[in-house]
């Protein structure tokens, strides 16, 4: 695997990254990817305390990596620099540690979801969280579902199931569904939609043991627990892959982390990491591949709907095009308008932070304007935190594209 | 003719000359220094940046080794801000003889150089990129030095003690009166006028050019200029000075200096200290040697190549036998006893590391001649800039621009701010290359691709010269940077050069900038240097060359 640090040598200082970087466009607090990445890296030494704090204003969107003509792994350089920054300045701050542990929060809150929601969403506690933790009181926080995806799945029998009317051509495809934290604790309906769509297409779907992919920790500079998560996932997932399953996820962030991000950031070049990375797919990517192989059931019912679709940064970082756009285009009646905007500004947990909330909202402005002006009654996006941010900023409901597919198959479950 | 007079006249504004000027001024002597170009334009500004522990000389030349460790300790004390405390390793690679390690260790012990053998695993922990097949490793107190800042600080201290330093004053004639050197005639290259400088004692500290100065006084001093080539890589692959533990040879030291690491050097005789090229095989040899220390070295991005010339003094040439062989590394010649020409001393050879001691020995002799009995104090008084009593850190420039000052970066690669460039311009920079020497402008990956035109703009804004003059400054600077790029034009640096070319030739038409037929004191020098290297363009593949090796 490419040595992240070595890629700094490819930089030709062209500034293209800086002119595309969303935070750099809206705040002077972030000097931009060229400065924070390949340039600053030459001034960082493993033997000295971290010299630069501005790198913490990188939101990890990876727009820079995408536009760089030279292949510099800028976002990864920045993420590593943030981790060293925290390490050198007395450890990862409490807020960052907390925001990195979506899974732990979910596990704690789940049994008392209604109370937890009440606590999380009232003005007094939001004020306290802002004052004590630096989590902006206006920022969009999700609600805990009453029942997790895993609970639902185990009640369903906990096993793969053949859908009625499933149609398959070649040998049966086998998928291990990676729900991640969001579909498990906050939006189980996304997981159910994915399961329904895959099973409708004759795919055998299991739900393997798994923990948080580690991305929230990685992007909050908390590498050690992220490494532990990644190792646990490899232990669970590598045997599954060996048994012939593909890993498919509904969160573009989790799948990106399993595919490449964790390996690169943590410098893990183990065989298990390679195996899991090479067999992980975003759900729309997977369905699109099935479609190209003539294996997708395209018997969709018409959906008379106008959708404003935003391909999230994390999806772009997969470098697989926009499979959701292509899939939605097959649905009769569905009118999809794709945003040309770079980033919604939330970037996982970045836009929740008090000093960064305004940056996030300013970054997202072009997207929010697009959604509002599109006249669409519903928005769509593949990444959960982006969906929450879009709804927060525009008031427009935001779905995962898989939910639209499920609906077009007539598979909408009433349990959302 | 303008006239200047002094007790001591120093010729040469490198480490040695400024060191002599400081020492003389601190002893209360009325001192003048003449440098034909900018300070550091000579070998001092083109060296490897190694603060020697003495380890390199311990086996073959214990006298130099002792000088080095002594001065190493002193420089750490008086100019910590010019030194990065990297430490050094001597590594027995799989291509070296492990038995040499024992001789090396014993020699270091004998010279008083702290030297400790560490395990190969320990060496790899410290420098993970080293070839894991290494057999033995020794740690010594080498360091990385910034000779640019050191000379400027030395000059500043000299000025504070009353010395007058004239740059762009080229000594063209030595004035002899009754068998005695009474001073020199110099040409002020900026104002194009002659200056007469009279002094009781003249010190020739002209480095590789010292033979030419001596010749002006009718003395024969045989100095063989020995060229040494170095290649800088785009970023630091090691954070410790890494030496091969074997008898000294070509390309056996890797020094992390500032933001780069530098492999060097070679040592081959050239006819002229001024006019030499860098050959493809020299670059190839250095990269091959680097590969032996750090696998993957050749694939890393080379930034630039340059060369400096060592003044190799080849012993006695004329009658008298009065040469004072201070040691094998440096030589002080008293031309009164040696050639019957009074009032002239030549100090030559040596290392950057030992420049202070060379100055001390020289000024001791000056004082003796002038009947002044004041002891040297240069080892006691710290240099300006060292107030924080702390070594230089790799991260210091980044730390300094954090918190808002990023917005005013002129050179982004080396983090040089507008303030710094303006200060250098206002301090009388004659060329943009002078600005570079005092700020590091244009020394990073893009080699002035983006800062060159910005700096030219600032020059114009500050000085309001005719526009042709600003054009000339830019063209000179591009030419100067280009000559160091030529020998490494392949891979990623070639890509960079293409982008720079598009910017300067495609957008700015720099080739045809109107300079009104003007020339700076260095225009011809830059052109000629780039031409000498022009045949080094292809990627170096093979070594060889059949020239005789020196040093
Ligand atoms: C390739 C190489 C690598 C080296 N690496 C190291 C190292 O890592 N560590 C170390 O300790 N040492 C190193 N050295 C040695 C060290 O750099 C030199 O010994 C030292 O810089 C010499 O300084 P100087 O002042 O004597 O000479 P210079 O710096 O050459 O100064 C002489 C000055 O005299 C000026 N001059 C010439 N003619 C005239 C004139 N007519 N009128 C006025 N001025 C004139 C020149 O312009 C020049 O600036 C290296 C040398 C070389 C060649
Ligand atoms: S990852 Fe996004 S925020 Fe960070 S430097 Fe790159 S473009 Fe800017
Ligand atoms: S886009 Fe890539 S090559 Fe250009 S400045 Fe940014 S990192 Fe460097």
Tell me about this structure:
The complex is a heterodimer of chains A (416) and B (551). By secondary structure, chain A is of the alpha/beta class. Chain A has 4 domains: 5-88, Fumarate Reductase Iron-sulfur Protein, Chain B, domain 2 (Orthogonal Bundle), CATH 1.10.1060.10; 94-133, no CATH class; 149-292, Glutathione S-transferase Yfyf (Class Pi), Chain A, domain 2 (Up-down Bundle); 305-408, 3-Layer(aba) Sandwich (Rossmann fold). Helix content of chain A is 50%, strand content 8%. Chain A has helices at 16-20, 22-26, 33-41, 63-67, 74-88, 94-100, 102-109, 113-120, 123-133, 149-155, 180-186, 188-200, 215-218, 223-242, 252-266, 271-278, 283-292, 313-318, 323-330, 354-373, 384-394, 401-408; strands spanning 174-178, 204-206, 246-249, 280-282, 305-310, 334-338, 378-381, 397-399. In chain A, the strands form 2 sheets. Chain A has a 4-stranded parallel beta sheet, sandwiched between helices. In chain A, strands 6-5-7-8 form a 4-stranded parallel beta sheet, sandwiched between helices. Chain A is globular and about 60 Å long. Chain B contains 16 helices and 22 strands. Among the domains of chain B are: 81-145 and 225-312, D-Amino Acid Oxidase, subunit A, domain 2 (D-Amino Acid Oxidase, Chain A, domain 2), CATH 3.30.9; 396-532, no CATH class. Chain B is of the alpha+beta class and 551 residues long. Chain B is 34% helix and 22% strand. The radius of gyration of chain B is 23 Å and the shape is globular. The longest helix of chain B is centred in the C-terminal third of the chain and has 19 residues, at 467-485. Chain B has helices at 15-26, 62-78, 100-111, 120-126, 147-160, 210-216, 280-293, 335-339, 355-370, 396-401, 418-426, 432-439, 451-463, 467-485, 491-507, 523-533, and strands spanning 2-11, 31-34, 50-51, 83-84, 88-92, 116-118, 136-140, 143-145, 164-166, 169-176, 181-188, 193-204, 223-233, 241-244, 253-257, 260-264, 268-269, 302-313, 330-334, 344-349, 409-411, 416-417. In chain B, strand 10 and strand 11 form a beta hairpin. In chain B, the strands form 4 sheets. In chain B, strands 5, 6, 7, 13, 14, 15, 16, 17 and 18 form a 9-stranded mixed beta sheet that branches. In chain B, strands 1, 2, 9, 10, 11, 12, 19 and 20 form an 8-stranded mixed beta sheet that branches. In chain B, strands 3-8-4 form a 3-stranded antiparallel beta sheet. Chain A binds chain B through residues 6, 8-14, 28, 31, 34-35, 39-54, 70, and chain B through 234-236, 239, 259-260, 300-301, 393-399, 402-404, 406-407, 412-413, 415, 444-446, 449-450, 492, 495-496, 499. The structure holds flavin-adenine dinucleotide and iron/sulfur cluster (SF4) (2 copies). Flavin-adenine dinucleotide binds next to helix 1, strand 10 and strand 18 of chain B.
């Amino acid at each position: 695997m490419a040595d992240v640090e070595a890629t700094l040598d490819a930089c030709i200082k062209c500034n293209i990254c800086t002119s595309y970087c969303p935070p750099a466009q809206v705040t002077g607090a972030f000097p931009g990817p060229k400065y924070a990445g390949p340039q600053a890296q030459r001034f960082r030494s493993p033997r000295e305390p971290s010299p630069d704090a501005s790198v913490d204003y990188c939101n990890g969107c990876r727009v820079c990596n995408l536009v760089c003509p030279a292949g510099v792994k800028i976002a990864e350089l920045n993420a590593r620099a943030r981790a060293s920054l925290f390490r050198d300045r007395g450890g990862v701050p409490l807020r960052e540690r907390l925001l990195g542990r979506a899974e732990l929060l979910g596990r704690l809150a789940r049994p008392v979801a209604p109370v937890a929601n009440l606590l999380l969403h009232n003005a007094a506690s939001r004020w306290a969280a802002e004052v004590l933790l630096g989590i902006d009181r206006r920022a969009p926080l999700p609600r805990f579902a009453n029942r997790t995806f895993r609970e639902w799945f185990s009640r369903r029998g906990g096993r793969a199931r053949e859908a009625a009317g499933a149609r398959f051509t070649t040998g049966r495809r086998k998928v291990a569904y990676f729900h991640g934290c969001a579909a498990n604790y906050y939006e189980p309906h996304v997981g159910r939609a994915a399961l329904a769509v895959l099973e409708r297409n004759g795919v055998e779907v299991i739900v393997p043991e798994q923990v948080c992919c580690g991305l929230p920790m990685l992007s909050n500079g908390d590498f050690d627990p992220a490494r532990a998560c990644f190792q646990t996932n490899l232990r669970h997932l590598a045997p599954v892959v060996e048994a012939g399953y593909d890993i498919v996820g509904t969160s573009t962030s989790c799948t990106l982390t399993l595919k490449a991000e964790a390996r690169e950031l943590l410098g893990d070049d183990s065989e298990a990491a390679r195996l899991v990375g090479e067999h992980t797919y975003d759900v729309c990517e997977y369905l699109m591949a099935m479609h190209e192989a003539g294996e997708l059931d395209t018997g969709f019912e018409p959906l008379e709907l106008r959708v404003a679709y935003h391909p999230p940064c994390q999806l772009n970082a997969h470098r697989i095009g926009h499979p959701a756009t292509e899939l939605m285009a097959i649905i009769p009646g569905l009118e999809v308008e794709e945003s040309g905007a770079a980033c919604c500004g939330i970037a996982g947990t970045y836009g929740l932070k008090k000093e960064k909330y305004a940056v996030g909202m300013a970054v997202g402005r072009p997207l929010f304007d697009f959604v509002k002006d599109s006249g669409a009654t519903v928005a769509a996006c593949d990444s959960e935190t982006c969906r929450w941010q879009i709804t927060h900023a525009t008031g427009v409901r935001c779905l995962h594209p898989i939910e639209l597919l499920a609906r077009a198959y007539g598979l909408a479950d009433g349990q959302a | 003719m303008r006239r200047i007079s002094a007790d001591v006249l120093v010729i040469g504004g490198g480490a040695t000359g400024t060191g002599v000027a400081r020492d003389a001024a601190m002893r209360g002597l009325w001192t003048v220094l003449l440098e034909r170009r900018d300070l550091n334009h000579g070998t001092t500004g083109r060296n490897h940046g190694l603060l020697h522990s003495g380890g390199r000389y311990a086996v073959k030349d214990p006298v130099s080794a002792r000088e080095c460790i002594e001065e190493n300790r002193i420089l750490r004390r008086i100019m910590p801000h010019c030194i990065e405390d990297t430490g050094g390793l001597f590594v027995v690679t799989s291509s070296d003889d492990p038995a040499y390690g024992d001789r090396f260790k014993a020699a270091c012990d004998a010279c008083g150089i702290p030297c400790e053998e560490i395990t190969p695993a320990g060496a790899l922990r410290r420098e993970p990129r080293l070839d894991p097949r290494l057999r033995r490793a020794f740690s010594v107190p080498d360091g990385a030095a910034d000779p640019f800042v050191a000379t400027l600080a030395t000059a500043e201290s000299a000025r504070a003690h009353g010395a007058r330093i004239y740059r762009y004053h080229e000594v063209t004639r030595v004035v002899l009166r009754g068998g005695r050197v009474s001073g020199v005639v110099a040409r002020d290259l900026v104002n194009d006028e002659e200056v007469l400088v009279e002094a009781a004692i003249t010190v020739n500290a002209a480095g590789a050019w010292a033979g030419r100065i001596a010749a002006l006084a009718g003395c024969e001093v045989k100095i063989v200029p020995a060229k040494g080539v170095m290649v800088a890589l785009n970023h630091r692959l090691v954070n410790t000075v890494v030496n091969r533990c074997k008898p000294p040879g070509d390309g056996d030291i890797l020094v992390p200096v500032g933001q780069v690491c530098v492999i060097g050097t070679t040592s081959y005789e050239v006819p002229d200290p001024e006019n030499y090229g860098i050959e493809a095989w020299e670059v190839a040899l250095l990269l091959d040697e680097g590969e032996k220390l750090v696998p993957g070295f050749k694939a890393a991005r080379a930034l630039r190549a340059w060369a400096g010339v060592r003044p190799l003094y080849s012993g006695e040439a004329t009658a008298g036998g009065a040469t004072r062989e201070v040691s094998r590394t440096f030589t002080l010649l008293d031309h009164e006893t040696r050639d019957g020409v009074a009032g002239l001393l030549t100090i030559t050879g040596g290392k950057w590391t030992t420049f202070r001691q060379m100055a001390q020995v020289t000024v001791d002799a000056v004082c003796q001649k002038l009947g002044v009995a004041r002891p040297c104090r240069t080892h006691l008084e710290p240099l300006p800039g060292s107030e924080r009593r702390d070594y230089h850190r790799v991260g210091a420039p980044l730390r300094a621009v954090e918190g808002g000052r990023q917005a005013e970066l002129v050179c982004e690669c080396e983090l040089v701010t507008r303030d710094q460039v303006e200060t250098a311009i206002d301090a009388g920079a004659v060329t943009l290359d002078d600005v570079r020497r005092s700020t590091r402008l244009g020394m990073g990956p893009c080699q002035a691709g983006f800062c060159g035109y910005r700096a030219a703009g600032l020059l114009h804004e500050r000085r309001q010269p005719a526009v042709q003059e600003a054009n000339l400054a830019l063209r000179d600077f591009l030419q100067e940077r280009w000559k160091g790029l030529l020998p490494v034009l392949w891979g990623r640096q070639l890509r960079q050069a293409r982008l720079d070319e598009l910017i300067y030739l495609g957008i700015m038409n720099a080739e045809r900038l109107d300079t009104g037929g003007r020339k700076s004191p260095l225009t011809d020098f830059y052109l000629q240097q780039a031409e000498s290297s022009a045949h080094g363009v292809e990627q170096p593949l093979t070594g060889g060359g059949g020239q005789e090796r020196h040093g």
